[in-house]
Amino acid sequence: MPELLDHTPSGVSSRLSPEARFARWAGGLGAATALAIAVFLSWNLLGSLSFALTLRGTRLGAIVLCAVAISVSTLAFQTVTANRILTPSIMGMDALYSLLQTVMVFSLGATAWITTPEPARFVVELALMVGFSLLLYRWMFTSKPGALHLMLLVGIVLATLFRGVTALLGKLLEPSEYTQLQDLSFASFNRVDPTLLAVAALIIAVAVFLLWRLRHSLDVMALGRDTAVSLGVDHRRVTTAVLALSAVLVGTSTALVGPITFFGLLVVSLAYQLVPGAGHGRLVIISALLGTLVLVAGQFVVEQLAGNSTTLSVVVEFAGGIVFILLLLKGALK
Amino acid sequence: MITIENVSQSYDAEVVVDRVSASIGPGLTSIIGPNGAGKSTLLGLIARLQPLQSGRVTVGGLDVTTTASKQLARTLAILRQENQVSLRLRVRELVTFGRFPHTGGHPTAHDRELVEAALERLDLASLADRYLDQLSGGQRQRAFIAMVLAQDTDYVLLDEPLNNLDMKHSVAMMQLMRTLVDEDGKTVVVVMHDINFASSYSDSLLALKRGALVAHGGPEEIMDTEVLESVYDMRIPIHEVDGKRLGLYFGSPQAARQA
Ligand SMILES: Nc1ncnc2c1ncn2[C@@H]1O[C@H](COP(=O)(O)OP(=O)(O)OP(=O)(O)O)[C@@H](O)[C@H]1O
Ligand SMILES: [Mg+2]
Predict the structure, then answer these.
(1) Is domain A14-40+49-333 given the CATH code 1.10.3470.10 in the classification?
(2) Where are the alpha helices (DSSP H) in B151-234?
């Protein structure tokens, strides 16, 4: 592992070139992630080996998918929205997903909706998610960039509204339907459906691949809207694509493990600290590795060492929340 | 040739570009006018940074509204008045972005040569490995201009390129622009405040006032006390020195009070 104290983001001459820095961190994080995965899978295995491994493997799959989806979508989202504080979750995208799910159950009835085959249900949900996200967010980010604090406020209002309506609709449901809905929308790392996992893996792989192909355009977008347009990047198209892909990634991850608000912010802020000045190609790799490491190691600690006395999301939210406040303070003090 | 036909732009009810029509180029053209006259807005409209509200603009025969942005980026480059980058970039990396319209992010050896040439032209060779936040204001300004030059387009628009530059670098910049025009055959449009600089180096000048085009002509026509008064609402005596017409706008305190 590279030394933690090694980075000097604003030093006059960082000793390492960005390439060497990236190589060190990618290597270190890669090794640490592999180690964490190995420990996660093998620690204290009891009883039937294959059964236990399948169980843990499924859980691990969900964690890795969620980590990659949220890290990469947050990175791209922050670039097209030209800030380092807003994330899809903070703007209420995961709350929107939960709301859409509730509305489907409410309008079609829980039984009808749940008996729809899993992949079909999922595709319908994601399509709705993308449609509504573009409707809601596109105008905000493709016109002249507005004040960050206004955006933040809009995001918080939207998220609260979505959660409020979700809760209201939940109360209006039959108790039995409500229980079924809870099973749908609050899946945690511990109860993941293997079919859903396979579908989610496919969707996330495609979405991350598409974002990866946009990495050079994202580098240019980071120079600001005017420079990006002047260098021939279709700012509107890239913004729309990133918003749509973020909606897909956030929706999929929320369907798998439920909402985690500050995780993306935590990971991406750290990634920028580790490899300052790196392009999006490198940032995607570092944040995906970092996200996986944090979630796998965190889940391991919660499960095996803390004896499930707390949940991972509480820990991640706590750390992420602190980073969020620090970033806000730093912005305000500038 | 850049043609501007009846272009208007307003923010809310305020008209900031008012039915401007003009043909610009070939050669070096300066846009002059008081603060808030609409110079930057007009330049941004020519470079399709804002969508046109009304009128039409073509650059080298390409309609800026309908032509693909990527193709325009190989025809026209623009330096904005304000440039900040949130990323931590080295000078050479910034300048390499100028090649993006040609490479899509995969620069070849030829592109790297053009980047080095642009760095050299702007006297940045020794600073190429510095981060942008480690540069002085004038050095940073030159780095952004180097990026624009690396784009290697037939049309170059620069919004106040002399911002932050010392006298030596200002003169070098204007000479560089002459080279771009005279040797490379480019059409260059610059926004400038110093009328003496503008008239000494430009082939033509275009004066804006409250969004409207009030004068357009060669330096000898524009460097005239009456014309300048109609642009700036101040009397600027013109003196001929070594065959050059210079406006003495920074005269004695008394002269300023009379104006
Ligand atoms: N985004 C905007 N919203 C509202 N008004 C604007 C906006 N941008 C510019 N303006 C107004 O348009 C007018 C023209 O602005 P512009 O930047 O084109 O002036 P300029 O001639 O470049 O001035 P300067 O010499 O100060 O750079 C100004 O009155 C300005 O206040
Ligand atoms: Mg201006």
Answers:
(1) yes
(2) 167-182, 195-201, 219-222, 225-232
**Helices A93-108 and A175-185: crossing angle, nearest 10°?**
150
Question: Counting one residue from A and one from B, how many pairs have CB atoms under 8 Å apart?
Answer: 71
Q: Is B148 exposed, middle or buried (0-12, 13-18, 19+ CB in 10 A)?
A: buried
pTM: 0.87
The minimal CB distance from B73 to the residues A223, A230, A276 is found for: A230
ipTM: 0.90
Q: What class has domain B1-72+156-161+188-259?
A: alpha beta
* Ligand 1 atom closest to Cα of residue B191: 22
Q: Rounded CA gap, B6 and B58, in Å?
A: 12
Domain limits of chain A?
Answer: 14-40+49-333
Ligand 1 centre to CA of A75 (Å) is 33
Residue B24, H or E segment: strand B14-24
Walk along chain A (334 residues) and give the pLDDT tens digit of each residue.
344 443 444 444 456 777 888 999 999 999 999 999 999 888 887 777 788 888 888 889 999 999 999 999 999 999 988 888 889 988 888 889 888 888 888 888 777 777 777 778 888 888 988 998 888 888 777 766 567 778 888 888 999 999 899 889 888 888 877 777 776 655 456 667 777 888 899 999 999 999 999 999 999 999 988 999 999 999 889 999 999 999 999 989 888 887 888 889 989 999 998 888 778 999 999 999 999 999 898 888 888 877 766 777 777 888 888 888 888 787 654 4
Distance B33 CA to ligand 2 centre (A): 9
- Domain ranges within chain B, ordered by starting residue: 1-72+156-161+188-259, 76-152
Question: Measured from the CA of B160, which atom of ligand 1 is nearest?
Answer: 27
